[in-house]
Amino acid sequence: MPSARLLVLFGSQTGTAQDVSERLGREARRRQLSCRVEALDSYPVVNLINEPLVIFVCATTGQGDPPDNMKSFWRFIFRRSLPSTALRQMDFAVLGLGDSSYAKFNFVAKKLHRRLLQLGGSALLPMCLGDDQHELGPDAAIDPWLQDLWEKVLGPHPVPLNLDLSPPGVLWPSKFTLQFLKDTPSSGPEELCAAGTDPQGPPSELQPFLAPMVSNQRVTGPSHFQDVRLIEFDISGSGISFAAGDLVLIQPENTASHVQQFCQALGLDPEQHFTLQPREPGVTCPTRLPQPCSVRRLVSQYLDIASVPRRSFFELLACLSPHELEREKLREFGSARGQEELCEYCTRPRRTALEVLCDFPHTAAAVPPDYLLDLLPLIRPRAFSIASSLWAHPSRLQILVAVVQYQTRLREPRRGLCSSWLASLDPAQGPVRVPLWVRSGGLTFPKTPHVPVIMVGPGTGVAPFRAAIQERVAQGETGNVLFFGCRRRDQDFYWEAEWEQLQARGCLTLVTAFSREQEQKVYVQHRLRALGPLVWELLDGRGAHFYLAGNAKYMPADVCDTLLSIFREEGGLSDPDAAAYLAQLQRTLRFQTETPCPGGTAPELCPGVPAGGPADRGSGFTSRSLGPEHLDPLHQVLVEDGLGSGALGKPQGARTPDSEPLLGAPAAAPPWASRTEDEEAQQEAEECPICTEPYGPGQQRLALLNCGHGLCMGCLHRLLGAAPGDLGRVCCPLCRQKTPVLEWEICRLQEELLRADGPPRPAPPTPPLPARHGRGPWASLEHRYQLRFLPEAVGGRGCLPFLPCPPCLGAWLWALRGHGPCARRLALLSLLALELLGLLLVFTPLLLLGLLFVLLDGSRR
């Protein structure tokens, strides 16, 4: 083996980053490199100082948050006390996985790359930013990046002459071996685990609480298109405690029919027991898997046979396949050139791993049991908003579950694993226990008394607000305003009787929107706009908090548009002031949102506010805030004040390696640097989401865009410099909106680009908050001619501007506005000139006629 030790550390939320990391490990072993693959939180981070070569693979979740299995590492690596030379001996590379439809695209990877540079690390090559929106997926960026990576790695550490590079089709040993037992254990661990309903310590993923299901009730009408369940669990004696906004995580199981079908396809005996042994030292067995274990339990509770397989699944199947035709097709799906065919065959129709194995029967029958854990990922828990409060329902936990079912071009409907499994459980037929545990969620409700809250929760998005209302009513709070929307009152109006009772007691103001009960569809944003004065008075006059939860497709963007219009019309704010006001609400955590994304679909961006997004995608629940400031302190990034992207200077109060070892010390790590939530939020708000550099003077000062996003002037110059001849059609890099820059900003930047060779000017100070004012001169002029060119009829056209020109010329000048700010001003000035010419044509004959009368009167005298 070469002397190089390669370490691959991953942070993954749904398994995508872990899959890429394992692929890196296989590629390294093919090149005869010693490689370890570990999760970031599983690796002792204090030993990072001794690693010569590290590859970081990390996804971005939520509002630019790190995944759950790298939070401890995230907090450690951003400690202020770390010296700037801590990682000077380490070469590293960063591979990020993200989705460019989200505002903070690959935010975690960008910040990690910059932080490693600050700590003295040497980057082997620029970071890779995989984009799930690419037609070929993240592999479109990963494949060429890996080629450059291996060239860099093998440069100082070439493969010895006596060792050859293994071809891609070579089958490597499995990570584990399954040793089947001849005798079936008399009392398996299944019964022991089922009996242990009282966990030692607080329930967690490693030791969930087996909660008895009390009720499983359908709350939608029988003719409603969707099955929505209100499920209640008994958590007595579990030690579980939760507050409004928290989440419950549930570990689902595969259906019995799918388990039987899988065992038949692979020729496995579901009743046979085995023990699992790691093949290599340093590899640990899955902690949740009991020893010994039955094949049925392994397949039903651990292997995710209902997931959509990834590229590595087909690569390994191709190595295991004895059938020539099936092997060639599997190799095509596992190759870089076959990704379009793989997307058409598997990704778009959401074909499951079980269905793929049934499509390749000869290969499935030849899969050795040792490779089951290499081939299939483990089932991941699903998160749901808690829909009840312990104040109103002691020792009970309720959730509102929409059963996921949809049709693709495949004959069998696609079903959500967890929601379908929960819907199939019936406590009336016998005792039912569900493994679950609780964690904090993305919504935090005000602790200060008498602070009103505005909650917008259409559909199942109302679930966390029910818990909040129950908790606030029990504490004597009456300032609760709920906007609820659904299709029909008699079909999907959840908790109707409870809302009406609270409203009658004066504890709740309920505003409903039933979209299908009239010809014109009415949604929550329409009701919100109709009550604009009330919303503005609560937000601006009484300091209310605003919460949004529900379908992540269009509703969040529409609600944000409505809020901006309320700020403009009721508050008298201009467009940039309204966006700044909404950003201020986000910074102070007075505007929060939580959006469930079925199937891992990405929510649309919210115009007017920065939106976040998960990158490591998967079915279940995602919780996020639309603003970059809504981050749990655990997720915050500690950026040194006044530092650029260069090496990190010695922070104030930092300990040096001579005084106390930090990285690599055998003793316990020093305590974390403590910061308040407000400081963390403010710090996060002062960084550019593109380059992740902190805002400052010069090129790092903040530039506000029309769409509400902000970025530094350096990134904005690079964006505009890419298309200097057509500035008005430049897209915002965060939300892809056209003409993103404020009009005054784009003209000033155009002037700066034209005199780029001249002497630099000092940057003007940025005001804390723009003053309220009316329309500017150009906006007023545009509004003047807007009515003139409306396509529909407008009353009182006699008062409209008179333009003495053919209608086609006026329409052409009006359409010219969309070609940029300069063209907009030229068009408006031309229309103004035409209007003045019209006035001149009207009044000139009158003046001449008046002059003629004066002359005639003088001649008579």
Automatic annotation (TrEMBL):
Sections of the chain in a coiled coil:
none
- Name its cellular compartments: Cytoplasm, Perinuclear region
Show the PROSITE patterns listed in the entry: FAD_FR, FLAVODOXIN_LIKE, ZF_RING_1, ZF_RING_2
Gene Ontology annotations for the cellular component aspect, listed alphabetically: cytosol; nucleus; perinuclear region of cytoplasm
Top-rank taxon, per record: Eukaryota
Q: Which family does it belong to?
A: Belongs to the NADPH-dependent diflavin oxidoreductase NDOR1 family. In the C-terminal section; belongs to the flavoprotein pyridine nucleotide cytochrome reductase family.
According to its UniProt entry, what is the function of this protein? NADPH-dependent reductase which is a central component of the cytosolic iron-sulfur (Fe-S) protein assembly (CIA) machinery. Transfers electrons from NADPH via its FAD and FMN prosthetic groups to the [2Fe-2S] cluster of CIAPIN1, another key component of the CIA machinery. In turn, this reduced cluster provides electrons for assembly of cytosolic iron-sulfur cluster proteins. It can also reduce the [2Fe-2S] cluster of CISD1 and activate this protein implicated in Fe/S cluster repair. In vitro can fully activate methionine synthase/MTR in the presence of soluble cytochrome b5/CYB5A.
Q: What is this protein called?
A: NADPH-dependent diflavin oxidoreductase 1
UniProt organism field: Bos mutus (wild yak)
Biological classification of the source: Eukaryota, Metazoa, Chordata, Craniata, Vertebrata
Gene name of this polypeptide = NDOR1
